[in-house]
Amino acid sequence: ARGSPRNLRVSDATTSTMKLSWSAAPGKVQRYRITYTPAAGGDSKEVTIRGDTTTTVLRDLEQGTRYALSVTALYASGAGDALPGQGETLEARGSPRNLRVSDATTSTMKLSWSAAPGKVQRYRITYTPAAGGESKEVTIRGDTTTTVLRDLEQGTRYALSVTALYASGPG
């Protein structure tokens, strides 16, 4: 008897791993073949595991990536039907580092920082007069790590913050 596994479940996703589990295929399964491909395109990879196992952890995956998955039971007489599914790794999120202020004038200052990890979509820069007052913010592209704040109040100290913004939320 050949058949397909059932009920593919993806759990415990991290930025580089995901756990797959499924209900066993009927008959005497020798091995399971797990195939996974980035849904947006890329090289397909596969692993095989023992036929008496119905769980595995995929490793060395790309962060923040959706994968097309399939699990196929392999029998002595050939392969059963593939069980398709999808899974997604988590996005690496974090904070920019090493905020530096330079080239200050009476109404401008240049900010620069070290990039946050992962796929930053945008950076949000918030600046508020340290003695109190209205906060302002600007956003810039995620591949940029420098900006110039303009129209600042002369002789004013500012509280500054830079936040990385990801598809899944702020860092």
TrEMBL record:
The keyword Repeat applies. One of its GO terms (cellular component) is collagen trimer. It comes from Chelydra serpentina. Keywords: Collagen, Repeat. Residues 4-93, 95-171 form the Fibronectin type-III domain. It comes from the Eukaryota. It holds the Pfam family fn3. InterPro entries: ECM_Regulatory_Proteins, FN3_dom, FN3_sf, Ig-like_fold. Coiled coil: none annotated. This is Collagen, type XII, alpha 1.
